[in-house]
Amino acid sequence: MEKVDWRDYIHSDPNILVGKPVVKGTRLSVEFILGLFAAGWAEQQVLENYPRLTHMDLQAILQYKEEKEK
Predict the structure, then answer these.
(1) Strands, E, within the chain: which ranges?
(2) Residues contacting 17, CB < 8 A, separation 6+
(3) Smallest Cα–Cα separation from 6: which of 22, 28, 25, 27?
(4) What's the gap between Cα 69 and its chain centre?
(5) What is the spatial distance between Cα 43 and Cα 69, in angstroms, rounded to a whole number?
(6) Which of 7, 30, 32, 36 is the S-S candidate for 21 at Cβ 3.0 to 4.6 Å?
(7) Which CATH number is correct for 6-69, 1.10.10.10, 1.25.40.80, 3.40.50.2000, 2.60.40.10?
(8) Cα–Cα distance, 56 to 70 (Å, whole number)
(9) pTM above the 0.90 mark?
(10) How confident is the model at residue 3 (pLDDT cuts 50, 70, 90)?
């Protein structure tokens, strides 16, 4: 996994999804994207269905999850 600083890609704003962490510039929550992966979606499927997302956004989500689980 590429090491990225998730803070460059993810933020929380109380005015967007009640402050849930989202990918910057979207209303797609980290929780939602992780749910897609948990349901068996591949990275390519996520990128095709949500074209505003990038590979780096997805890497940031995985880094965020890893850091929060520690």
Answers:
(1) 10-11, 22-23
(2) 27, 29
(3) 22
(4) 15
(5) 21
(6) 30
(7) 1.10.10.10
(8) 21
(9) yes
(10) confident
> Which amino acid is residue 16, in one-letter code?
I
pLDDT in tens, 47-70: 999 999 999 999 999 999 999 898
CA distance 10 to 29: 9
User: How many Cβ atoms sit within 10 Å of the Cβ of residue 37?
Assistant: 16
CB within 8 Å of 47: residues ≥ 6 apart: 53, 54, 55, 58
DSSP state of 26: S
